[in-house]
Design a protein that fits this description.
Blueprint (H helix, E strand, L loop, with lengths): L30 E8 L2 E7 L15 E7 L4 H10 L4 H7 L7 E4 L3 E11 L5 E11 L2 E6 L7 H8 L10 H34 L8 H31 L10 H63 L15 H22 L4
Helix pairs in contact: 4-5, 4-6, 5-6, 6-7
Length: about 350
């Protein structure tokens, strides 16, 4: 909770292009893995050092995908970027964990940074800063932690009939983004289920005391998804509006479809945020109504006993000249009078529909 609104100041005063890691170390040591494929072959491996990464060979029709897990090792990230000729500003954005999602087309590569959203074992949305770059015959992906959302894509690469096997690096770049956007929908579906549970609890007879806190947590996680979806949709819209030549005409329709998915996700976010706000307002209203019901009952009980208390207080003043005190019927008459007053008031409240 304490780090939600913190803003990194590590880069204040530094010149543009300065590679500074602005996040928290989330893995012990970085890991480099790679996959090389073409229509009739696939090979994969891991690289202990940057020098062990295979060289891309676009003339052979190969596509090389290199994935780096762990961004805290700035020297390693810079070395990988230099090996593939990344622009210094692109390398800077790779390790700017708190940065806004962005897309930039350079002379010989296209760079995209975004937020990968995953669901942790507790059902909460977790954000992972991810950067994806592609050039002629190669694609790079950088992420904070080893776990990712690219499992289905890796399996498709193993399938010789899959579309990705016959397309270039631009389609692999799109496929990586598509895997990330698909999990935006999964995150929203999970949040939607939690909000439905909160809604059922709001209208139940005994909601838990931590309901407002859980609703606020859901609202915060919706904000995390919103910060991932909206900037990426804007950036892809700008990119497809002036499509760089490195993105082939075959891939452009898929990018348009991806943008449509992001627009749908943005609409879903707005709907869920409105739902959470409405549920919190309804919860407060129901609590107020229940408190009013309690106060009404207590007020009626008090109103009934006020005249009885008045009668009892008169006969409790111990005056010497109170004729009723000397009569055998004085005590029963006082009790009967108080009971009659109470019953009359109950009947009056019932006729007024206050009971």
């Amino acid at each position: 909770m304490t780090d939600r609104f913190s803003i990194s100041t590590k880069k204040v005063g530094l010149p543009p292009g300065q590679v500074v890691f602005t996040g928290e170390r989330r893995v012990e040591s970085p890991k480099i893995s790679w996959v090389r494929y073409r229509p009739d072959a696939v090979s994969r491996g891991e690289a202990a050092t940057v020098a062990d990464i295979p060289r891309p060979d676009p003339s052979a029709g190969d596509v090389l995908w290199v994935n780096v897990d762990g961004l805290h090792d700035v020297d390693l990230v810079k070395a990988v970027g230099d090996r593939f000729g990344l622009h210094p500003l692109a390398i800077e954005d790779v390790v700017s964990v708190g940065g806004r999602p962005t897309t930039e087309a350079y002379d010989d590569h296209v760079f995209t940074s975004c937020k990968m959203l995953m669901i942790d074992p507790d059902g909460c949305v977790v954000s992972d800063h991810t950067s994806i770059v592609f050039g002629r015959g190669w694609a790079l992906s950088f992420q904070e932690t080893p776990g990712d959302v690219f499992g289905n894509l890796r399996r498709r690469i193993e399938d010789p009939t899959a579309r990705v096997r016959s397309r270039g690096a631009d389609y692999l770049w799109y496929a990586l983004l598509d895997s990330i956007v698909d999990h935006y929908s999964l995150a929203l579906s999970t949040l939607g289920g939690r909000i439905e549970d909160i809604e059922d609890e709001v209208w139940s007879e005994s909601p838990r005391r931590d309901l407002p806190l859980r609703a606020q947590e859901a609202r915060h996680e919706l904000l995390v998804v919103r910060r991932a979806v909206r900037p990426l949709r804007e950036q892809l819209g700008l990119l497809t509006g002036d499509c760089p030549p490195m993105i082939t005409e075959q891939t452009v329709p898929f990018l348009d479809d991806l943008e449509a998915h992001l627009m749908h996700n943005a609409d879903t976010i707005d709907h869920l945020r409105d739902a959470v706000s409405s549920l919190l307002e309804a919860h407060v209203s129901i609590l107020t109504m229940r408190a009013n019901d309690v106060m009404r009952v207590l007020t009626i009980i008090t109103s009934i006993f006020i005249p009885m208390t008045f009668v009892a207080s008169i006969y409790g003043m111990n005056f010497d000249y109170m004729p009723e005190l000397a009569q055998r019927w004085g005590y029963p008459a006082a009790l009967a009078g108080m009971l009659a007053i109470g019953l009359a008031m109950v009947f009056y409240f019932w006729r007024k529909r206050w009971l």
